[in-house]
Amino acid sequence: MPKISIITTTYKHQDFIEETIKSVLSQTYTDWELLIWDDSPDDKTWQIIQKYVKKYPDKIKVWHHSINKGIVENMNFLIDKSDKNSKYIAFLEWDDLFTNNNLEEKINIFNKYKDVKLVYNNLDFIDWKWNIFYKNFLKKVPFYLKNEILSKNNFIKYETFYGSYSSLIIDKKVLEKEKIVNINKKDKLFTVSDWDLFFRISNKYNCYWIEKSLTLYRRYENNVSWNTLKLFNDLELQVNYYLKNNFISKELFNYKLAFIYLLKSVSYLEKYDRKNSLKLLFKAIKLNYLSNLIYKIWILILNLLPKFLIKKVLKIIIKR
Question: Is the Cα dihedral 315, 299, 268, 166 positive or negative?
Fold first, then answer.
């Protein structure tokens, strides 16, 4: 069986890290190692991790630093420390969970399709108390990509982003060439380094999409994924970086930027900021007036609704 190194970083996650570790221990696929970097300075995260290291010293390797170095630096460190015999690198963020067949399903794909270098899967959103409140988040992936190989250069043509680090498993040799990068050196919480990694790999190698949800993705009010406006601002910065460095064409840049403006427009609507929401909507229309036309009409209608209805409609649509 090919060995898998699972990469996990933590920072003050005493409420979640134990369940995260347990989800790895429950895997039906058993040839894995778990590498954890903990930056927590003053909570019980490190103590909880140590408990499992003592139980499974051959399976779990850990490092600790009291200064928060940020997810990108820590992940690259762990990748470098992975077992020399590991063939694949998987990721599991500090507050997410694997289903017990996560690794087995992905290894089956690699065994079946030898030219695939990255596999990713659907997600279920869970809240603070592990309740699922949004099943199969990536269900809008085009039907002709479901359960099929996503050939290189295809991913960037679609609006749907792949999801999360916690849905990825990558051929280690590929990952050694494509390091995780943070273009915003001043921001340790730069939120789209995972999207960037997928972008670069999917431009050069074949990937595979598993429609089934194999990851429980934590989303609650105080975690990074809840701050959608920051997420989309970071994404805008990343896409501008691609254009500046000739990674994408001007046409594709306009298409992607228009979609990001729509996402940001909805984020402002969540804050009842109609002025900025409409401003971004019109920017999106100016950049590319035909793409995502239904989204644009929907956002315009939402802006015309009374405040109490905006909140109700968004709650139904966004499901949070």
Answer: positive
| Last-in-domain residue among 225, 249, 275 | 225
Instruction: Specify whether 181 is located in the same domain as 194.
Output: yes
**CA–CA distance, 11 with 76 (Å, rounded to integer):** 16
Whether residues 269 and 195 fall in one domain: no
84-110 burial: b if 16+ Cβ within 10 Å, else e: eebbbbbbbbbbbbbbeebbebbbebb
Q: Give the Cα separation of 296 and 304 in Å (integer).
A: 13
Residues 132, 262, single domain; the answer is: no
Domain boundary among 205, 225, 245: 225
Sign of CA dihedral 237, 243, 246, 251: positive
Q: Which amino acid is at 291?
A: S
Q: What is the pLDDT along the chain (320 residues), one digit of tens a residue?
A: 899 999 999 988 888 999 999 999 999 999 999 999 998 777 899 999 999 999 999 999 999 887 777 889 999 999 999 999 999 999 999 999 999 999 999 999 999 999 999 999 999 999 888 888 888 877 654 444 444 555 554 554 444 456 789 999 999 999 999 999 999 988 888 889 998 998 888 888 888 888 899 999 988 665 555 578 888 999 999 999 999 999 888 988 888 899 899 989 988 988 889 999 999 999 999 998 777 788 899 899 999 998 888 877 776 665 54
What's the CA angle centered on 95, arms 90 and 101, to 5 degrees?
Answer: 45
279 and 221 in a single domain? The answer is: no
| Domain interval for residue 210 | 3-225
Residues 99 and 244 in one domain: no
Is residue 22 within 8 Å of residue 99, measured between CB atoms? no
Output the domain CATH number for residue 93. Answer: 3.90.550.10
Q: Total domain count for the chain?
A: 2
- Do 199 and 219 belong together in one domain? yes
Neighbours of 5 (CB within 10 A): 23
- pTM for the model: 0.88
User: What counts of helices (H) and strands (E) characterise the chain?
Assistant: 11, 10
